[in-house]
Amino acid sequence: MYFPYFMIYIGIGFAISLLVFLWALKRGQFKDQERARFLPLEDEPEPAKVTVTKFNRIEGYALIFLAIAGLSATVAVLVFSFFSG
């Protein structure tokens, strides 16, 4: 019953992947493979020290609250589905 839709999704995903691969070949993404092995050996500049502001703290707490709310909603739906059936 779902097999034709599944095959359509696989075909669309394969076509998109093939287009992206051909685009990368055309743009020269794979030309300089010898340089790639030396990239971990290059010196990187020290990153600037990150300062935590009040807004960053509030943003962090808001993200944690949203994650907990989302997980709580998921648990509530699971519990409801187990006990209402």
Question: Which terms would index this structure?
Answer:
85 residues, mainly alpha, 2 domains, 3 helices, 71% helix
Explain the overall architecture.
The chain has 85 residues and is mainly alpha-helical. The protein folds into 2 domains: 1-31; 52-85. Helices cover 71% and strands 0% of the residues. It has 3 helices and no strands. The protein has helices at 3-27, 33-36, 54-84. The longest helix has 31 residues, at 54-84. The mean pLDDT is 87.
What is the topological layout?
Blueprint: H1 3-27, H2 33-36, H3 54-84
Which percent range describes the beta-strand content?
A: under 5%
- Radius of gyration from the alpha-carbon trace, in angstroms: 24 Å
Low-confidence stretches: none
Extended strand count: 0
Count of structural domains = 2
**Broad shape:** flat
Which secondary-structure class do the elements indicate?
A: mainly alpha
The run of helices and strands is HHH
Helical content stands at over 70%
How many alpha or pi helices? 3
Give a quick summary of the entry.
With 85 residues, the protein is mainly alpha-helical.
